[in-house]
Specification:
This protein has 324 residues and is α/β, with parallel strands linked by helices. Strand 9 and strand 10 form a beta hairpin. Helix 2 packs antiparallel against helix 4, helix 4 runs antiparallel to helix 5 and helix 7 runs antiparallel to helix 8. The longest helix is centred in the C-terminal third of the chain and has 19 residues. It has a 6-stranded parallel sheet with strand order 3-2-1-4-5-6. Strands 7-8-9-10-12-11 form a 6-stranded mixed sheet, sandwiched between helices. It has 2 domains: 193 residues, inorganic pyrophosphatase (n-terminal core) (Alpha-Beta Complex); 124 residues, Diaminopimelate Epimerase, Chain A, domain 1 (Roll), CATH 3.10.310.30. Helices cover 37% and strands 19% of the residues. The chain binds manganese (II) ion. The site of manganese (II) ion has 6 residues, from loops.
């Protein structure tokens, strides 16, 4: 924390980024960092490979996030700060050599983080990466104001599923309490984040729910989203956050799966959710992915039936091992 504080003090140009298909923690964390830097009188370039979901566009500074290299290509930044991302590849990078970074700071809370930075601050006990940004604000003695509080709170409710996942720690509540006392309005943020979907999301959800499959013992639930569904609903992967919760919500389901066809149809992004003690980070890492114990993902090449077969074999083996 101190080393990061010093590195920020010494740097003048900053490049902030986070992972592909950004969620509330990715967006909230880079915007919270932008606010933090602003309070020290510094500006930053915010880059995300994918566009951000509409429901996070209300966050202060969201309009400053760029998605194209034009204009910054060839720049050397004193400091790159990567948040909520297990490695450079998860960001859509690495961006060198078109960009150069004198130093890289890696701030994350994923167990599978590869410690790819020159300075690594990985706290797997944090409910969200933004929790770590909160701590950094305190370490640096910077005043917490409503703009950064809004970003941090949004990130926490996003990564804890509105305080319903197993990472909803006392610390997450403590920080949230401070943020609410500062003026964050939970109902207003919930409305912006969870209650402002485009109609295309509902149409896509209808199609996705139609693909629901349950294992014979009803402990595994899966839904599938094809490229054709995105085309038919004129939507994209940025609006599917939360879809995997539907199979997870079924009583008795211990592992929920979402198969998303990638463009070209030769590979699938597989997302996993589980109930304790089933560790889906382990399952995802078996396929070269990663994540958290109860929420993870990976990419698997092949046609859908083969991908499903491979995944189910590993999931069933894990369930048998865990028992209960
Ligand atoms: Mn996160």
């Amino acid at each position: 924390m101190k080393e990061i504080s010093r590195a920020i003090d010494e740097a003048e140009s900053f490049f902030l980024t986070s992972h592909l298909n950004p969620d509330g923690d990715a967006v909230g964390s880079i915007l919270a960092l932008k606010c933090l830097l602003k309070k020290t009188g510094r500006d930053a370039t915010l880059f995300m490979t994918n566009t951000i979901p509409d429901n996070f566009k209300f966050l202060p500074g969201a309009g400053d996030i760029i998605h194209k290299m034009n204009g910054i290509s060839g720049t050397t930044f004193d400091l790159a700060i990567v948040v909520d991302s297990t490695d450079w590849e998860r960001t859509g990078g690495p961006f060198e050599p078109s960009l150069r970074f004198n130093r890289v700071i890696n701030i994350d809370h994923h167990e599978s983080n590869s410690n790819f930075g020159d300075i690594n601050l990985v706290d797997t006990g944090a409910s969200a990466t933004s929790e770590i940004i909160f701590d950094l604000m305190e370490t640096m003695g910077l005043p917490l104001e409503l703009d950064i509080a809004t970003c941090i709170y949004t990130a926490i409710i996003s990564d804890t599923g509105g305080f319903t996942y197993s990472n909803s720690s006392a610390r997450a509540f403590e920080i949230s309490e401070k943020l609410v006392r500062l003026g964050v309005e939970p109902d207003k943020i919930a409305e912006k984040v969870n209650e402002s979907y485009p109609v295309s999301r509902l149409l896509l959800l209808e199609m996705a729910l139609n693909t629901l499959e349950l294992s014979a013992d009803k402990t595994i639930g899966a839904i599938t989203i094809s490229q054709e569904m995105f085309i038919k609903t004129n939507s994209g992967p940025q609006i599917i956050e939360g879809f995997i919760d539907y199979p997870r919500f079924i009583s008795g389901v211990r592992v929920a799966l979402l198969y998303r066809e990638l463009p070209g149809g030769e590979a699938y992004k597989v997302s996993f959710r589980s109930r304790n003690p089933v560790d889906v980070a382990k399952i995802a890492s078996y396929f070269g992915g990663g994540g958290h114990m109860n929420a993870s993902g990976c990419t698997i090449e092949g046609k859908l039936p083969d991908v499903k077969k491979k995944v189910l074999e590993v999931v069933v083996a894990e369930l048998e091992k865990v028992g209960g």
